[in-house]
Amino acid sequence: VSQVTRRRLLTGAVGVTLGGLAVDRVVASGGEARPVPVGAEPAALPRRQHAWEASLDRDAAGNVVAPRHDRLLLLDLKRTPTAQDARRMEAALRALEREWAWRPSGLLTVVGWGPGYFRRWTDAASPIPRPTALADFEDPTLDDYDCCVHLAADDDTRLAAAEAALLRGHRLPSGVRAELGDVFEPRETRTGFAGTGLPARRQDVEGIPAGRPVPRDAPLFMGFRSGLRRNQASEDDVTIATGPFAGGTTMHVSSMRLRLDSWYEVLDERERVARMYGPDVTPSQAAHLHVDAASRPSAFARDAVRLGVVGHAQTSARARRNGRPLILRRDFNTTDGGHAGLHFVSLQRSIDDFVRTRRAMNAARAATLNPAITDTVNNGINEFIFVVSRANYLVPGRAHRALPMHR
Amino acid sequence: VLLAPLAGAGCGSSSAASSTQHDSGARAAATSARRASTSMSGMPKAVPITPIGTATWDGMKIMARMSGPSTFTVPTGSRQKVVKPSRDDTGHLMVMLTDAGSGVPIPYSSVWATVRLGGKIIFDERQWPMISRTMGPHYGNNVALPRAGRYQLTLLISPPQAARHMEYQGRWSRPHRVTMSFHWDPAS
If we measure between CA atoms, which residue out of A157, A134, A194 comes closest to residue A343? Predict the structure, then answer.
């Protein structure tokens, strides 16, 4: 029976019943005691784990406003997981969802699974590739965690409570437990923030020069807005359309150190705008970008030759499909380890879409057009970010989020 | 203390042999280095050059050295911008990439330098591709070392992005990381 059930999981046939009937059958065939109750699921939760946007506020221009705080819980399995473990994990996630509503004033989550999880704990080939270095000027640690849980909310104390409940067995404010069980070994927690005023209040860290240069109202350390709606893929765009993980997506998670000494001390505002957007964009125009990071990607070669500098938005915007970006960024700044940094979380239909976008951002060809440009000189923001680690995860639909396809 | 004069051509390479791989044990002399400047005629004055360490990578020699804080220009697109040392800068870190056999400089690479003291990151920046009359092509930047101590320097060297004669075909195709340690004492 369990084989049949697993095959049905692979084809996606069981769909939303994973938390219920299908797992019950596996448990019954395995001879374990009573199935762990998974608990009730709050009504109207989206079937896609990554469907956050309907719950997010929007600004006057219609851009979604990201949750102000984030945590990434990076976990390994301690032992071969069972169907009961899948039910325990689903029960813990549902407990969080009953505790806090699915919105930034409550709690948003995404659970992803690394290629090593599929290799070690399932009979299926990994649906996502292992991470690799993606530029000649980076040598990142290639993470091999089984699982990544992304928590996001406007209130960081709520994230701390959720983490303590999941990983350390603490009770939620209502008194219930939401423990992931003894099957996971927590390896690392990454924290961060994104939103007006948050970076400026946290700028006394390595990587930010003296003099408190981060603007008081900036949402990110580099002083510019991110996530303008036409510069982001939509949740529909990044959703896997067919196959066993239809309704899911892929997630790339990289960690970067930000080095903003020369960003703030050598460059002036116009030069920063040129590198963030493109050399044709003025600071005045940049201040009035409301729905797209206008950057003239078609002028890339001309700007490289004539002006000797190309912009980050400009080079990245060359990676689009039917005029739309390939990735949905959910990145946030951090001061983990006492360093200014960026945890770059991005969703896309396939990891290839991320790789394509990152290679466009590298803009290696610019160096062949003008020797004043190298991969890390006058080339967008490449010289201000040092990639420390990279990881890929598969994000199943909500019904399959707990230990998908485990043996 | 190993100090090399920086007046005259070729001085940069002459002292490399005196450094030991990955650990020179050399002491930078910040006080004398601060006297480094450019003369009225435009010729660099003699300044102390301190070996930091040497490594090799498939026929490429990687040498790290420290001189006094320097004023230099950087291309910011369509113009050259003057970068002056900050008040805290204690030296100018230079990384020379050369052919280990011929000593000829290797340009068109990128070098990211990270300096740690007791595990804490002190400096963490891409080095500027740089040229000078006496040093030729190298990769440099000013650094601020806060106090005497044993520092670790990690260099991430990128594959040179250039057309290559056949003797270099297939070499240096991936980024390469080397770590050196050195002692620095501002009072020495």
Answer: A194
Span B24-49, average pLDDT: 49
Q: How far apart are the first and last CA of chain A?
A: 13
User: Is ipTM > 0.90 here?
Assistant: no
Q: How confident is the model at residue B15 (pLDDT cuts 50, 70, 90)?
A: very low
Q: What is the pLDDT at residue A144?
A: 98
Check B158 against A364: CB less than 8 A apart: no
Contact B74, B130 (CB under 8 A): no
Interface A-B: count of C-beta contacts within 8 A: 81
Of B78, B156, B161, the CB nearest to A307: B78
CA distance B3 to chain A (A): 29
Q: Which two tokens stand for residue A254?
A: 């990289």
The torsion defined by the Cα of A282, A287, A289 and A294, in degrees rounded to 10, comes to 20
With contact defined as beta carbons under 8 Å apart, do A85 and A30 qualify? no
B138–chain A nearest CA distance, Å: 14
> What sign for the dihedral angle of Cα B56, B62, B64, B65?
positive
**CB-based burial of residue A306 (10 Å sphere; 0-12 exposed, 13-18 middle, 19+ buried)?**
middle
* More reliable by pLDDT, A343 or B39: A343
Q: How many CA atoms lie within 13 A of A390 on its CB side?
A: 18
> What are the chain A neighbours of B110 within 8 Å (beta carbons)?
136-137, 374-376
Q: Which is it for the CA torsion A171, A175, A178, A181, positive or negative?
A: positive
Q: How confident is the model at residue B48 (pLDDT cuts 50, 70, 90)?
A: confident
Shortest distance between the Cα of A378 and any Cα of chain B, in A, equals 6
Residue A266 and residue B125: Cβ atoms within 8 Å?
no
| DSSP characters over B91-129 | EEEEEEEEETTT--B--S--EEEEEEETTEEEEEEEPEE
Q: Which amino acid is at B170?
A: G
- pLDDT at residue B2 is higher than 80: no
Per-residue pLDDT, A406? 93
Chain B partners within 8 Å of A279 (Cβ): 77
Q: Which residues does chain A have with pLDDT short of 50?
A: 1-30
Q: Under an 8 A CB cutoff, do B112 and A377 touch?
A: no
Tens of pLDDT, residues B65-99: 999 999 999 988 778 899 999 999 999 999 999 99
User: What is the reported pLDDT for A86?
Assistant: 96
Taking the Cβ of residue A197 and every Cβ of chain B, the question of whether any pair is shorter than 8 Å is answered with: no
Window 99-118 of A: residues touching B by CB (8 A cutoff) are none
Chain B contact for A269, CB < 8 A?
A: no
In A, minimum Cα distance to B81 occurs at A266
